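Help wanted!
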Amino acid sequence: MVKKVYGIGVGVGDKELLTLKAMNVLEKVNTVFVPISKEGKKSIALEIVKDYINGKKIIELLFPMTKDKEILKKYWNEATEKIMNEDGEVAVLTLGDPTLYSTFSYVWNLLKDNGVEVEIINGISSPFAAAGRLNIPLVEGDEKLCILPQGKDLERYLDEFDTIVVMKTTNLEEKLKELNDKKDKYLIGIVKKATFEDEKIAFGKIDEIDFDEFRDYLSIAIIKKVK
Amino acid sequence: MVKKVYGIGVGVGDKELLTLKAMNVLEKVNTVFVPISKEGKKSIALEIVKDYINGKKIIELLFPMTKDKEILKKYWNEATEKIMNEDGEVAVLTLGDPTLYSTFSYVWNLLKDNGVEVEIINGISSPFAAAGRLNIPLVEGDEKLCILPQGKDLERYLDEFDTIVVMKTTNLEEKLKELNDKKDKYLIGIVKKATFEDEKIAFGKIDEIDFDEFRDYLSIAIIKKVK
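Answered by r_m:
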């Protein structure tokens, strides 16, 4: 039975964003669990760490892209069982940081429910990488920040928060177009696949952004009020 | 004159949370600027990277702990001038991540205004380190997160956000006590100096926390609604 599980955030696309701690933990574990979204599809998280896990046992965990909670629960349970059946100390990889919208969090909760020791190794998460690539601070001084998945309740917070991060920007254009004559009050920075080789960046007023280029699962928008 | 400035997030207390990228950049620059809050006081950021900057020129940047914007501006301008007068490529260290409430952000803006090239090297920031140490996810699925410095407008967002991060918890107890009979609706995780050797952690309902132990500049609270 498993002794300890390290939940490792491997950061975003740039392999160098891995922490020394992640590298050192990967060196000492025997088994590395890697998330995939489809059978036969490459794990992005595995690509990032592959230089540091020579000779390790690699086990894939399937987390399909669906919003159906019942289906997902089945896969989370399966993944948890696989991890618990492994011996010794193991690592489970996740893109970004394990504490922020990671698929690992569901397995993490199940492992804790089963009394398994979990240690989190933080990683660089995409909103920070996106702000870095846009060359703008997210927040300064006493500014307020919120993070809204899929821009949930965006209209309610646009005037209250100095900075809004939207994770997954698929419907963002439609939400922002509804602002009509208030549109010029905001600046949008938008980044697809921050720090990956095929990264794409835009920054400007709402009407200046070609949102079609950013309809991607790994896109992040940063919305700021014009000062 | 300076050619390029790397704004490097060195993470929080645990030295191993440094990224490989930060380490590699520190290796190639000639000069490393380190923030201090008082003349003669040790730089925490310098402590974290000191094993990687043997033989480098170290220059201190003084950012005193005051809220007086006019005084601060004087020091930001002085720091920017010092950086611009250095030759070649230089690094400026900051605790946590440069994009999230970093002192570096003011200097960063001034450098950009002066046409200096800046590249951001992200670091692990304290809310993530705190969640990791508390062994709880910050947000999952479609949950909403906000970050409020000093708990600004906390009462307005307590019921709207799944998770609220409070940076600097000095007045948090007073704000939370006002909730009276609603107090048991929330769980608080609170971490002083996450991942430092003298880290302190508590988790529970509001009445169970000894807030006096967490009146510290580097304390973070994570507030969640009881599900």
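OP: Thanks! One thing I noticed: Chain A touches chain B through 54 residues (CB under 8 Å).
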